[in-house]
Amino acid sequence: MKLILAAFFSLACILPIFAQNEQAPIVEKEIKYRNWKLPTVRDISAELDLREISKGKKLVVVVYFAPWCPNWRFDAPKLEAFYKKYQSKGLEIVGVGEYDPVDRMKANLDSLGITFPVVYESVSRAQRQATKHAEYRKETGDKRYTGSPWYILLDPAKFEKDGETLVKRTDVINGEMIMTEGEAYIRKALGLPAEAASKAANAANSAAVEVCDPQKPVAIKKP
Length: 223
Fold this sequence. Notes:
Elements: H1 2-14, E1 23-24, E2 27-34, E3 37-39, E4 47-49, H2 50-53, E5 59-65, H3 70-86, E6 91-97, H4 102-112, E7 118-120, H5 132-139, E8 150-154, E9 165-173, E10 176-177, H6 179-189, H7 199-205
Parallel strand pairs: 1-10, 5-6, 6-7
Antiparallel strand pairs: 2-9, 3-4, 5-8, 8-9
Helix pairs in contact: 3-6
């Protein structure tokens, strides 16, 4: 029994060092992405309208996430850094919380220091296959178990003028953002000159996080 407990403790210590590498490139996909009005995590009596918040912006990054997913916790601080750096230049970032109670979502955002707007679509893991998030992931070929994080990158200038459908084709990320690629994409979309990749940015991409997808092995180190 002692050996079993020792083995379990050792595994628990090792898990945070490893991660499922869910970093994915930015790819263009056909997707009928619709406008939404969803309650905000910080004030559930208030709603956010995506089309409205996109007005006057050059790029809107919508990131779907599950608060308990370590892959989200890996991306979130970097997204916050992008938000602070580029918000005044035309970038909007909006989080869509999934599969956890709202109070836990709020606690997660507070612990990560997230200031960009966040709404929620679902509040339970039991809803995993019944959300728009799940529908969009299937539409773009994302076969991950939870799909956290999942990104859709929107150019408001290309929105359909009428109706609920905003775009029929746009760029998505079926996984974690490759941060150097993401920042280059953001700068280009905002009309800013390319920025040389730094050692710090490359080092940030190599940090390890825990396993998120229970259907995958726990033996892949982040590159």
